[in-house]
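User: Thanks for the earlier help. One more: non-specific protein-tyrosine kinase. Can you show the sequence and predicted structure together?

Assistant: Of course, both are below.
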Amino acid sequence: MTLSDKQGAAAELLPAGSPARGQRHVELDLERLAQMGMVTHEGGRTPAAEDFRIIKRPLLRNVRGDSPSAIRNGNLIVVTSALPGEGKTYCAINLAMSIAMERDITVLLVDADVARPSVLKVLGLGAEAGLMDILINDELELADVILKTNVPALSILPAGRSNRHATELLASRSMSTLLSEISNRYADRIVIFDSPPLLITTEASVLAAQMGQVVLVVEAEATTQNAVREALRLLDSCKHIDLIYNKIKAFPGTEYYGYYE
């Protein structure tokens, strides 16, 4: 693929009339998200909001160096699962929304599930250029594809166009450079990655190896112990792994999250 081909491919994902350069703004329907049970700034003290206040606190302590030893790249947090359907995207978005409520932090939510991206779909947004487009096109800049939202501290980096060489791209020097840029450009930035499931694609373990913290979502009464053990084996090089025990049935018709370090 030539450079002009790459530019054209990325442009196809940008709406007609979009500026060629500069950050774009999108409106999240916060009322719709609240009705879906998501964490929002205006959603009040819902069970999900309270759960993610608990979930985010140790992650933030690691980012800020409040723990006994500072974590390298602690502000890079990947949310993954062993298998599809365990709620990792739901948890990644809620975690990003909750952290964005902090007074002194900005959040970048990255859809890194490049084979089956769903962050924009869950948020009610259409397809956009994003992560994969930056990795294959040196002419694209981060500011060209980051979406600024109506949540003041929250921005989104879409997955972009799917690519059959996604694993190699995520393990490339270009990805390492990009991670350094998005994590170090702003001292107050935390980056949340929605990753592919670990047991389905190789991209997940490649991505997790470059993160400072890993959050593994486990579906209650569904994910087998063998699947969890195999997922943890694939994360063997990751030193800081936390588990969210998701979809626990507390009372008929209700669900909540459990958190384990």
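User: Great, one quick takeaway?

Assistant: Residues 47-64 form the longest helix (18 residues).
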